[in-house]
Design goal:
Blueprint lengths: L1 E13 L4 H10 L3 E14 L4 E5 L6 H9 L6 E6 L8 H7 E5 L11 H11 L4 H15 L14 H13 L5 E5 L7 H18 L2 E5 L3 H7 L2 E6 L2 E6 L1 H8 L2 E8 L10 H5 L6 E6 L4 E7 L5 H9 L4 E8 L2 H11 L5
Parallel strand pairs: 3-7, 3-8, 5-6, 6-7
Antiparallel strand pairs: 1-2, 1-4, 8-9, 10-12, 10-13, 11-12
The protein binds adenosine-5'-triphosphate and magnesium ion (MG).
Length: 338
């Protein structure tokens, strides 16, 4: 359904100089800075998939979504959605896709929600009978009837998000793009939105691409995730495989007796591993030494023996690194290079 082939996006901005003098200098200079927000990304998405597109702030997620929806044209590479170049054939593409940007609404702010839907019905050429049928379905999954006659600006964030999702789905698009659809919502509304996305996907085989910072969205919805970091794709696969590969990390936390000895503890050399294979962290307040390592490389008894050869241990805790932690790690260091 979606083919993304080696797309890149460069943003060119004028070079800025500091201070007032600099601002004046900037006016007359034509030095430019090129920022590659998306760097040679390729993937394919099949009909009916729900794919999570994740990465830290500024990784290039929204920029990729904008190229897939046709809002931006790629600087290099090509993107096809249902066989169409979304940027070159915008009208046809618009019939195929629905878009929700969680950060801002696509609806008419001062109009009652119902009128936004009437306008969209005309724009997308939805017949009266299809409209009635669609509205019945959308009202069931998104429960919009309570606020359907109110101006959009008076809606709560959760109501507005449901309304936006409904509006994006009125013409039954083949592909639904959601850019942070649950941002700022409370747990109950998040859950409603997730259920609605699931039901739409199951019933209509709608292909869904969503960006999110919410691990819950990924766990509930996505059978596949694509992780990007600084504009590059660093992982493409199932969440399960991600857990399998990166879930072998363990963390042992030890409450110790002699904090002054922490500096003398050279754990990597004691265990005969490389520095990066056991990362040590010491927290002063709780007197706790935490070591994170791969369970296939280092055994817990071995680790404890090594630490105890230098200092006494008062208490020990062994933890699995949780998915949220793994994903946090992806977010903070991009551990999945290559
Ligand atoms: N119109 C633009 N002009 C210049 N730079 C831009 C523009 N749009 C985005 N960028 C830059 O491109 C990079 C990627 O931005 P993008 O919005 O795609 O990130 P993101 O992954 O969606 O981040 P977030 O999680 O914060 O939403 C950022 O460094 C951003 O500042
Ligand atoms: Mg974004």
């Amino acid at each position: 359904m979606i083919e993304v082939k080696h797309i890149s996006k460069d943003f060119v901005t004028p070079k800025k100089y500091p201070g007032l003098k600099g601002a004046v200098k900037g006016l007359f200079s034509n030095e430019k800075i090129v920022k590659t927000a998306v760097d040679d990304i390729s993937f394919e998405i099949q009909k009916g998939e729900i794919v999570g597109y994740i990465g830290s702030n500024g990784a290039g997620k929204s920029t990729t979504i904008k190229m897939m929806t046709g809002i931006l044209s790629p600087t290099r590479g090509e993107c096809l959605v249902d066989g169409i170049d979304p940027n070159k054939r915008r009208k046809e593409n618009a019939q195929n896709i629905g878009v929700v940007f969680g950060q801002r609404t696509q609806l008419w702010w001062d109009l009652p929600l119902s009128e936004s839907f009437t306008v969209l019905k005309e724009i997308y050429n939805v017949s009266d009978s299809t409209y009635a049928e669609r509205m019945e379905f959308l009202n069931r999954v998104l429960e919009m009837q309570d606020f359907f006659d109110r101006p959009v600006r008076t809606l709560s964030l959760g109501q507005r998000m449901r309304a936006d999702l409904g509006a994006a789905l009125l013409h039954n698009p083949k592909v639904l793009y959601l850019d942070e659809p649950t941002i700022g919502l409370d747990l109950i509304v998040k859950d409603n939105i997730r259920e609605a996305i699931k039901e739409i996907n199951e019933r209509y085989q709608t292909t869904v691409v969503l960006t999110t910072h919410d691990i819950g969205d990924i766990e509930e919805l996505c059978n596949r995730i694509i992780v990007i970091d600084e504009g590059k794709k660093i992982y493409d696969g199932s969440l399960a495989a991600l857990k399998e590969t990166y879930g072998t990390k363990r963390r042992v936390s030890m409450e110790i007796r002699q904090p002054e000895k922490v500096a003398k503890l050279h754990l990597a050399s004691l265990l005969n591993v490389r520095e990066e294979e056991c990362s040590v962290n010491y927290e002063k307040e709780s007197n706790t030494l935490s070591v994170t390592f791969d369970k296939h490389k280092i055994q817990v008894p071995q680790l404890l023996t090594a630490v105890m050869s230098v200092m006494d241990i008062k208490d020990v805790q062994i933890q699995e690194t949780e998915l949220s932690q793994i994903v946090k790690e992806i977010y903070s260091h991009g551990i999945m290079e290559g």
